[in-house]
Amino acid sequence: MNPTFREAVYQIVAAIPPGSVSSYGQVARQAGFPRHGRFVGRLLSQLPAQTRLPWHRVLRGDGHIALAGTPGGEEQCRRLQAEGVVVLGQRVAMKRYQWQPDAVREQ
DNA sequence: TCTGTGACGATTG
DNA sequence: ACAATCGCCACAG
């Protein structure tokens, strides 16, 4: 994987504030690689278990938990709720929590 | 080269 | 709201 892309994704994900969420596609766009949402997911899937990256704040574009039904998904739900994000079933209210970075707000 | 495979996304019925 | 499709892109075999 392009190290530039990897670093950009790490930086962007790390910048998502607690209580807010983003999506794979959005992170990819901010990293300068539109349509690479799948790779954001791939990168996160390859993160070491001890990572300090807030990977749990990244959801699918429709607000669904990508790993719903898996152990990782439950961990994600717990972490989100611990930050005050309400998770209903397999989804969260993106409209309410979606992070709007300055770079994007300007447009 | 071709095919299958994703922690994806937008469109359509 | 839900499911089926299709487009997307890098990688493994």
Automatic annotation (TrEMBL):
InterPro entries, alphabetized: ATL_DNA_repair (IPR052520), MethylDNA_cys_MeTrfase_DNA-bd (IPR014048), MethylDNA_cys_MeTrfase_DNAb (IPR036217), WH-like_DNA-bd_sf (IPR036388)
GO BP annotation list: DNA repair
Pfam families documented for this protein: DNA_binding_1 (PF01035)
Signal sequence extent: none
UniProt keywords, alphabetically: DNA damage
Top-level taxon in the UniProt lineage: Bacteria
Annotated Methylated-DNA-[protein]-cysteine S-methyltransferase DNA binding domain residues: 5-85
Molecular function, one GO term: catalytic activity
Protein name: Methylated-DNA-[protein]-cysteine S-methyltransferase DNA binding domain-containing protein
Source organism of this protein record: Alcanivorax hongdengensis A-11-3
